[in-house]
Amino acid sequence: MASSRIVYLNGEFVPFDQARVPVMDRGFLFADGIYEVSAVIDGRLVDNAAHLARLDRSLSEIGIRNPHAAAEWEGLQTELVARNGVTEGLVYMQVTRGVAERDFAFPARGTPPTVVMFTQAKTVLANPLAETGAKIVTVEDLRWKRRDIKSVALLAQVLAKQAAAEAGVAEAWMVEDGAVTEGSSSTAFIATRDGRLVTRPLSTALLPGITRAAVLQLADEASLRVEERLFSVAEAHAAAEAFYTSASAFVMPVIAIDGRTIGEGRPGPLTRRLRDLYIGMARAA
Ligand code: PDD
Q: Is 64 helix (H, G, I), strand (E, B) or coil?
């Protein structure tokens, strides 16, 4: 990482190696915090208002006061992107319940939340994996019951992604009661042999993906048939196409699940179309 890298910490833009968070930060001790990730392409934030709305909701669900209005957040993000010269990549934001002596219940009212932001330069558009398609595996979903909250408690996702890495693949889809919930850091979609798009309906069992919502909107505008319902691992193995969506992957084709080839073993036409539509939307916004 460049020595000139700048992060945002509690009201200040500071050099990366001078940014310090105390040991008693509740994010560190309890994973008592929320995060968000927005993509940057052409130097601009993608679908950012929706990410900031989800950040606000996640914070409110666990009783942390949102330290900034959306316009303030966006101003800080934009400045951070500019200071780091990021034209393509990500902005990461995290808010924790702040610093206090270790005790499980909330600290005294008025304890300021800890706010951290950093950027990551990354190839999002011309990602070679999007050309070849990704292989994935399925793993058991080990998470808690409020997966609609974008909590920084990501141990189950860390273990899922490590299982994928050890299998030599890009992503793991998590499975509960035989049905796919979502990817370790993405939303799961399949396309049936008769051209219907299938993704799990929103509930507390999964994160309401911002890219998911945009893709469903684009699919609707393109008059594609969409079913929001549970789908099994067996159905995914037999799908005509599969893909996953996230702020960092956009629409990522899946060409194998658990070593079984999906469709023709290359990105399918529906997936490629949705990726193009999504990129078009992201660039035009
Ligand atoms: N992850 N599901 C989970 C569990 C996720 O962690 C993510 C995103 C998504 C996709 O959501 P969105 O389309 O809003 O990015 C679904 C981010 C990118 C991350 O943790 O880095």
A: coil
Q: Which amino acid is at 18?
A: Q
Same domain, 109 and 220: no
Residues 252 and 160 in one domain: yes
Domain count, the chain: 2
150 assigned to active site: yes
pTM greater than 0.85:
yes
Residue 261: which domain range? Answer: 129-284
Q: Could you tell me if the CB of 38 is within 6 A of ligand 1?
A: no
The amino acid present at 94, given as its one-letter code, is Q
Residues 135, 17 share a domain? no
Q: Is 245 in the pocket of ligand 1 (CB under 6 A)?
A: yes
Sign of CA dihedral 160, 181, 273, 217: negative
- What single-letter DSSP state applies at residue 153? -
- Cα torsion 220, 135, 143, 28: sign: negative
Q: Which amino acid is at 76?
A: L
**Cα-Cα-Cα-Cα dihedral of 172, 178, 179, 181, to 10°?**
-50
Tell me, in angstroms, the distance from the centre of ligand 1 to residue 34's CA.
12
Residue 119 sits at φ, ψ, to 5 deg, of: -110, 155
> What is the 155 CA–ligand 1 centroid distance (Å)?
14
Q: How many residues does the chain have?
A: 285
Same structural domain, 136 and 272? yes
Domain assignment of residue 1, yes or no: no
Amino acid symbol at 226: V
pLDDT in tens, 157-199: 999 999 999 999 999 999 999 999 999 999 999 999 999 999 9
Q: Are residues 112 and 21 in the same domain?
A: yes
